[in-house]
UniProtKB/TrEMBL annotation:
Domain VTT: 44-161
Protein name: TVP38/TMEM64 family membrane protein
Record localization: Cell membrane
Transmembrane annotation, as ranges: 25-51, 57-80, 109-135, 141-164, 171-187
Assigned protein family: Belongs to the TVP38/TMEM64 family.
């Protein structure tokens, strides 16, 4: 499958069609898609969350996406914690960048992780893996995931719950584009700020 075909596959319209086709399964497809993104980070979580909000409504769609992405992130964390300490994966612990990130997570704890996970463009898959390799307490990371993902998923759900309005109202589309850009920009600034402080 080419890149163009992949782009056409992962559109909000196609996701809505798929959710409609498998509506007999209820909310399961809506939960499984965000969960899968935790294991396959190239999948567009943004699209899945917007499609859920459009298909199930704002609050139900938000809850479905939040459950899916939170469970997926916690599973990745637990899997990495389980197998990441085996001898075969010892090279990860020796990698300078990964070691620096692990120490950062251990020192900073809940607050910075929560802030990073609030933003849609934070590479949460990398955060899950590094946290799993680090010594952060599982309860602390679970709280950061649950609350950070709650904020992030609600922001995306609020943007995407009325996709038709985005198409019919160009000004709303412009507003959404500006909000998405601001989220990306602020997220990058937060990442840079933490990285700068870590280097001091």
């Amino acid at each position: 499958m080419s890149l163009e075909e992949l782009k056409q596959w992962f559109t909000i319209k196609h996701m809505l069609d798929m959710l409609a086709e498998y509506r007999s399964f209820g909310v399961i497809p809506g939960i499984v898609l965000p969960m899968a993104e935790a294991f396959l980070p190239f999948l567009p979580l943004f699209v899945f969350v917007m499609a859920n909000a459009a298909a199930f409504g704002l609050w139900k769609g938000f809850l479905i996406s939040w459950i899916g992405t939170s469970v997926g992130s916690l599973l990745v964390f637990l899997l990495v914690r389980k197998i990441g300490r085996q001898r075969f994966f010892s090279f990860l612990h020796r990698h300078p960048t990964i070691r620096r990130m692990m120490h950062w997570v251990e020192r900073r704890g809940f607050g910075p992780l929560f802030l990073l996970l609030c933003f849609p463009f934070t590479p949460s898959a990398a955060v899950n893996v590094v946290a799993g390799l680090s010594g952060i307490a599982m309860q602390q990371y679970m709280l950061a995931i649950l609350f950070g993902k709650m904020v992030m998923v609600f922001m995306i759900s609020f943007i995407g719950y009325d996709v038709v309005a985005l198409i019919r109202q160009p000004m709303r589309t412009v507003f959404v584009a500006v909000v998405i850009f601001l989220l990306w920009y602020i997220g990058k600034k937060v990442e840079q700020r933490f990285a700068l402080h870590d280097g001091k």
